[in-house]
């Protein structure tokens, strides 16, 4: 694809994310909802679809669905279940119980770290299918000698979150899923583990002439198991569709499969329409109508969402929400906020948290906000140089002690007094007449050499900023 061609088109993406709920038991029976167990051990007549068995709705799954709806700013409404009819061996009833035109959550949105809002069309409840494994022939059904089916996953509760077609790039698609995952984890509804299939993403991709408002014909891509493959699949599919349109062909609406090894999508089947599924209301379940009291209890029990946490930290640290997104993602915002609350310098607190603390998650779990605030303050007031403060923090993270003053004293980290430092700087100037002349002539690069020499002579105890100041004083007479 030429850069010109890429400039003439824009991509439009809508995502469907299936989220497995972290309930103890399945959606309509008492079987355990657990990942990675011996196949076909968590099954019963209900989730195997045996004749005469009847579903009983899991209350906790409704609560989780409502939490997700609240967190995504949805309208939470009375809803009903439908049967979505189709045949596949991993779906023992030959229909999936899902929600169709009266979903529990609709018309919401989520906010990306950069402030852009993406509409959420709906977030409805449904049951998961079992899992088939095709044996022999590299896992492909066409070349397989036989297939195995595990029904442990059949009937696990899901919420499917459907976005509006408002995502404008592969990068933004990844940001959306990453934000959604953080929200789902914050609600307590999901463990967010993409690698265990707790979160599964289908991407609807179309392209249109840049600036146009009509939607192009879309393809739906399945089988992306990570944020990385989501990004790659969308990039590939965008290029494929632009190439087709540029050469005068058209895009055919279909479902496509992402092949991670080959790095491309390939046609799987033509797109089903709603008609093909013969939806009808599930006669074995009553309508679901959570009362106001339950909805209020759910609303009150929600922890702050990532966007709220970004805003809170950004305002305390006088910066932008996007600048603190990573700290919130790493769950370090509480530490920094507490340190700022205890009087620590916001800029230094942010830097030490984002670098030293973030690099050591185990140590971070041990670190108290109070001692973190103290080490930051030692640095901010010049009692420790940046280098020394990093070393003290490293010792605290390693579990040596949570008393930064004691560690500093043990290491002999005393702030050098100014006259001692001046004396060392003067010695170094005297020993390096050539570089000193260059410094006097205005070459700023040689100051690094002087700082290095002073550091060496003082075993790192000197404050680099103080050395620079003394060099300037000596130069300016
Ligand atoms: P289905 O259930 O058949 O997949 P939906 O109408 O529920 O169809 O749409 C599913 C997803 O496809 C939604 O996320 C929606 O935003 C997205 N979508 C619909 N049309 C387009 C399009 N032309 N380009 C990109 N995404 C689209
Ligand atoms: Mg779809
Ligand atoms: Zn069961």
Describe this entry's structure for a reader:
The protein has helices spanning 3-8, 59-71, 170-187, 227-246, 292-301, 306-316, 325-329, 333-341, 346-357, 361-366, 369-380, 386-397, 404-410, 418-431, 433-440, 447-457, 464-476; strands at residues 9-20, 75-76, 82-85, 95-98, 105-111, 117-127, 131-135, 146-150, 157-163, 199-209, 219-224, 254-259, 264-270, 280-281. The chain is an alpha+beta fold. The strands form three sheets. Strands 2-5-6-9-1-10-11-12-13 form a nine-stranded mixed beta sheet. The protein has a three-stranded antiparallel beta sheet with strand order 4-3-14, with no helix packed on it. A two-stranded antiparallel ribbon has the order 7-8. Strand 5 (105-111) and strand 6 (117-127) form a beta hairpin. It starts with a helix and ends with a helix. The mean pLDDT is 93. Residues 26, 29, 31, 43-44, 46-47, 155 line the site of zinc ion. Magnesium ion binds at residues 16, 202, 220.
């Amino acid at each position: 694809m030429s850069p010109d061609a890429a400039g003439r088109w824009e991509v439009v993406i809508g995502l469907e994310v299936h989220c497995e709920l972290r309930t103890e038991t399945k959606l309509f029976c008492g079987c355990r909802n657990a990942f990675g167990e011996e196949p076909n051990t968590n099954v019963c007549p209900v989730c195997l679809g045996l004749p005469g068995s009847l579903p009983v709705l899991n209350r906790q799954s409704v609560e989780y669905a409502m939490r997700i709806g609240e967190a995504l700013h949805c309208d939470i409404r009375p809803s009903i279940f439908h049967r979505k009819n189709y045949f596949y061996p991993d779906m023992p009833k030959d229909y999936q119980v899902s929600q169709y035109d009266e979903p529990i959550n609709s018309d919401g949105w989520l906010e990306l770290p950069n402030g852009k809002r993406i509409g959420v069309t709906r977030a409805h409840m449904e049951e998961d299918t079992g899992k088939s494994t095709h044996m022999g022939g590299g896992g492909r059904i066409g070349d397989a000698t036989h297939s195995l089916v595990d029904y442990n996953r059949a009937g696990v509760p899901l919420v499917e979150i459907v976005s509006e077609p408002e995502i404008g790039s592969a990068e933004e698609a990844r940001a959306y899923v990453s934000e959604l995952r953080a929200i789902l984890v914050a609600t307590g509804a999901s463990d967010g583990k993409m690698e265990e299939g707790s979160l599964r993403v289908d991407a609807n991709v179309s392209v249109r002439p840049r600036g146009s408002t009509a939607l192009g014909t879309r393809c739906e891509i399945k089988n992306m198991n990570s944020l990385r493959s989501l990004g790659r699949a969308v990039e590939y599919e965008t290029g494929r569709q632009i190439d087709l349109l540029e050469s005068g062909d058209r895009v055919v609406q279909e479902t496509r499969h992402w092949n991670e090894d080959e790095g491309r999508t390939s046609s799987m089947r033509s797109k089903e329409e709603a008609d093909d599924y013969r939806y009808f209301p599930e006669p074995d379940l009553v309508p679901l109508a959570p009362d106001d009291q339950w909805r209020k209890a759910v609303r009150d029990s929600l922890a702050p969402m990532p966007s709220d946490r970004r805003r809170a930290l950004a305002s305390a640290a006088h910066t932008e929400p996007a600048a603190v997104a990573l700290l919130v993602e790493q769950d370090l915002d509480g530490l920094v906020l507490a340190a700022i609350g205890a009087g620590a310098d916001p800029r230094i607190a942010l830097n030490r948290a984002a670098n030293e603390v973030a690099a050591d998650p185990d140590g971070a779990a041990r670190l108290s906000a109070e001692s973190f605030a103290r080490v930051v303050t030692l640095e901010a007031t010049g009692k420790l140089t940046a280098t020394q403060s990093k070393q003290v923090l490293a010792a605290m993270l390693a579990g040596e002690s949570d008393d930064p003053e004691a560690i500093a004293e043990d290491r002999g980290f005393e702030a050098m007094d100014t006259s001692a430092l001046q004396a060392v700087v003067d010695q170094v100037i005297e020993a390096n007449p050539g570089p000193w002349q260059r410094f006097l002539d205005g070459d700023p690069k040689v100051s690094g050499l002087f700082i290095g020499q002073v550091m060496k002579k003082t075993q790192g105890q000197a404050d680099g900023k103080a050395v620079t100041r003394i060099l300037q004083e000596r130069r300016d007479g």
